Amino acid sequence: MVDIVLSCSGLERSYQDGSRSVKVLQGAELTLERGERVAIVGRSGSGKSTLLNLLGGLDLPTAGEVRVSDKSLSSMNEQARSQWRNRQLGFVFQFHHLLPEFTALEAVAMPMRIGGEAKGAAQARASILLETVGLGDRLSHKPAALSGGERQRVAIARALANKPGCVLMDEPTGNLDPESAELVLNLIESIDWSATAFIVVTHDPKIAARMDRQLILESGRLADLPRALV
Questions:
Q1: Residues near 66 by beta carbon (within 8 Å), at least 6 away in sequence
Q2: What is the pLDDT of residues 183-197, one digit of tens each?
Q3: Engineering a disulfide at 201: which of 48, 163, 183, 212 sits with its beta carbon 3.0 to 4.6 angstroms away?
Q4: For the whole model, what pTM was predicted?
């Protein structure tokens, strides 16, 4: 039986530019199965980050629907959507978004604590996740004491904290030097994603080629990327 963790249908997003309505997405369609790794590419300004924000429930579409673990995000109020997002989705952005006053252990435990997990249990899982991403000796380090690549690995561990069905990544290596970027990519490939799907938005064809499936966002719609371009 196919286990669909995220889907969108007829997805549209428009913005007002003065008196003019600008359509960024025009009927995007996507179905993502558990364990899949999907890359989304497209030129700058094509709407990739807009799409990711809609898929993650950080923004709502002008038309169409996003379903996460078979629940429509648009049908929920903001509080319910935030709670569902915390349980079902993980996020890794181009910038790590780690709060400077929290240690790596506290940062990874935070989504679990927000979800109601007891402090001891949350920190125990956070410790295991940080070991998994190669940072078992950095538990008490704050962001200022971590390299760029280490911060992004903390962000990946944090994204996995609540065992989400899907992780959304927006240019996860965009701010890293080539060596650190390669380490992060190797880490992504080495993690057991059998229980989790993920989408990575990227400009880098090398990253896209390492995913299971490649899509391109053009004219507001998603399509399979021609093999010649992968």
A1: 6, 7, 8, 11, 54, 55, 57, 72, 73, 74
A2: 777 777 777 667 788
A3: 48
A4: 0.88
